[in-house]
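Assemble and predict.
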Amino acid sequence: MWEYTDTVKEHFLNPRNAGEVEDANAVGEVGSMACGDALKLTLKVDDDGRIEDAKFQTFGCASAIASASALTEMLKGKSLKEAEKITNQDIADYLGGLPKEKMHCSVLGRQALESAIASYKGETPKEQEGEIVCECFGVTDREIEKAIRENNLTSVEEVTNYTKAGGGCESCHDAIRQLIARVRDEEAPVQRPRLSNIQKIKMIEETLEREIRPSLQQDGGDIELVDVIGNRVLVASRGACAVCKASELTLTHFVQTKLQEMVWPELVVEEVPK
Amino acid sequence: MKTVYMDNNATTRIAPEVLEVMLPFLTDLYGNPSSAYSFGGRVARNIRESREQAADLLGASPEEIIFTSCGSESDNTAIMSALNTGKDKRHVVSTRVEHPAVKVLCNELTKQGCRVTEIPVDREGRLDMDRYKESLTPDTAIVSMMWANNETGVIFPVEEAAQLAKNRGILFHTDAVQAVGKIPVDLDNSAIDMLSISGHKLHAPKGVGMLYVRKGTKFSPFLIGGHQERGRRGGTENTASIIGLGKACELAARRTEEENTRVKALRDRLEGELLNRIPNSRVNGGHALRLPNTTNISFEFVEGEAILLLMDEFGICASSGSACTSGSLQPSHVLRAMGVPFTMAHGSVRLSLSVYTTDEEVDFVIDKLPPIIAKLRGFSPFWKPQAQACA
């Protein structure tokens, strides 16, 4: 059985605000019976845009019920602006945390909230516009991307824990991997500082000295830096390397990989005749 | 709070008689049965008796019994032995509702180049015998088919299936972990070649099981080591547990009748009352031949884990085939194979009784469960009381 916090257990055993707000003007319905959990959130928003009353109906496990109960407690008295900022992590935090496999329960809460706010404004929630990636649980690319961004997810397993996507037939795992890569690319276009030519040459020399020469010398070989033109690194083999048939392989595979890793990813190593 | 244990298909209490015969082997009688001196030799004699008790329960000979560590080891041993001794045969026939000990092994075998056919079941969990017959080929090394399903209690016609396999020269293994002790088993008049048993489902301790291997069946050991179990399973014997399992087999032979009379009556009353008191509920596999101790009931529009946790508040132990309790995101593979609708599958609860179950315990569950379902339905977005009135 899952390990739930006392707060989760308490909200599950004594759910707050179960039911439907009678004269609700914001309604969010997410999930389905096929998926194993569903949440209907009804809100009464007053003229000043403040949430007067919030109630929930849940079909789901203990943590789904507790998440919905917690959400309604968090919402009451908040302005819509404040409510919009609530993330699934906030819901989980309110409960003192959720088992990682159950994080999708908190995501369900956040989705219901978005859907309710959108219905109040007369809009369609963005996530539901996307394309279905996971057929088993009807999860769209937008929902997955949002979960990846907001919770800093890095693996398919995590995406499944948070959104359920990929938890059925598993045929969408590649698509989820691509979504993770796409979001990561967006977030991390960390520009490497451009190197000046002098810096580059200096770093190449240092790397040769520290990382490459010692291992070549062990086999009685050596390497000499001849010139650097743009990203072309011209080197000459010495000693055993100069006569070794495997030296070409050594240079391209070993030296180039090291230099790309330590100095600049686009460096190309070329061997020049002595 | 008193524990009301209704999960005997998960594990069972150790019978007091079993514990009693085990204790000396956990204290004074610690000799190694393989040793030459009489301090060890007498333990070997006790194990021999235990093997006889186990054989008697099955209508087998003692030399056909191999003690193992659990049901899963027995299942793995049987299937791998068939593949290792079956020359180039690379086809395994199984079913869609097997226990993970067989099902996951079959998935692994598929990755290693074996072909596995999983025979489907109908809505009541009954095996598709036509598909079974068609699945047997000259390349089939073994059929592995559970005798009774752990989740629903549905019984497969293993004797008939074993005969069909035998006619075609195919080995037949059955995972009888749930069946033995609950229904009569007689391997003397049977075409079954191998059969798995788990101790802890039979009021013996956890960590002991056994595999029946019919005399003359080609066999290759799974656990390679010493000469124990006549070279068919290496490793020093789990002495106390084996002694316990022998006693449990002796008890089971005597109690099979009680399972099918008193326990069955309790199960039927429990099931009938729950169906009566709780609208929109149904028994999974209810129209099939079933074990006398098991009922698997689905309560529409509510989720199983929530039911279990509310039952737990009263000390009632049961299990569920819902996604949230299966540790995955989908309901149990058994209920899915049966095509149980999602509205029902997520709200399934399995109650499994034993000879230790009392009338009072059954009354207690009949009393406590209906309000639990009503409470959860009270805030389920799918539950409409008026719909129930029409139904």
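The beta strands of chain A are 26-32, 37-45, 51-59, 132-134, 139-140, 221-229, 232-239, 268-271.
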